Hints:
The chain is 67% helix and 0% strand. The protein is mainly alpha-helical. Among the domains are: 135-199; 203-323, no CATH class.
Amino acid sequence: MVMLLDDASPLVRRALAEVFASSDHAPPTVVHALAADQPDVAAPVLRRSPLLLDADLVEAIASGEAQRQTAVAGRPHVPCSVSAAIAEVGCAEACLVLLENPGAEIVGFSVDRIVERHGHLAAIRDVLLARDDLAAPTRHALVVKLSQSLAEFVTSREWLAEDRAHRVTREACEKATVVLAAESPEAEVGRLIQHLRDSGQLTAGLILRSLLSGHLEFFEEALAVLAEVPLSRVIGILHDRRGAGFRALYDKAGLPASSFPAFRAALDAMREDGFVIEPGGASRLKRQIVERVLTACEGETPDEIEPLLTLLRRYAAEAAREEARLFCDELVGGKPRVGDYDLRGVAA
């Protein structure tokens, strides 16, 4: 058998590999020699042999050959250390096989590394988004990858100017982030906000969108992270009807002074009227709150807050259109909510 390792025909060596691939009693010398052979010969051994140690598998992954990496990723059991090696240097095909392998142990940082390296590929995104154990920060990273891919696609086709494409995808990404935060467990919201801060995506526009959507928990967590103030203290300040301390907290969070009137008006509306009960939960802009904030900000000095007014007008248009869509969906479904809408088809 040792002599057959030097046979000139790869078919002979491949047959030898198929015979010994699953055997517990195969000669270790033969198994290791076959594992170091050319990829199509080594693949059965790398995929099934119980005699190979984790170090042997990591060495095969480090070779950089896609066929070897894919064979290792498809083993009946892939330990965390081997999964981490595939996530770090494996090709896209090997990472996809690993993610689809029910016997693979994959920890969170390995999944994040796969997203970072291959999240722009639709097949990788689909498999990851189908996982029940995917953390909210990882889901958000996939959303960002998707938005970047879409922006590059439309600009390469010259369907949109580059600046407009990036603005549209950025706004869509912010909207998806609020939806993700609203649908995530409460314990995941803090991790998501920390991820947004670390990646430089926790912007005033995103925080304002979350507040205008009625997602007060997101707003509270964001202020606590940015201002480095305990969450309990932030909650106490925001629920103080006198509004005492909010400006100091806002400034400590480093949010732009020009946006303060919008945040103040939104909080005032919530303190006075409570949360507006509208369809969509905390994942959709609330038209009544947006319009009230826009009216309050229009009384400020226009030159100083013109960008804010532009943003609020876009939010108002978006909220009205989404509310109209929900109204039409209810009509089509045969369950219009009498009294909730006026003759214009928007909430009364």
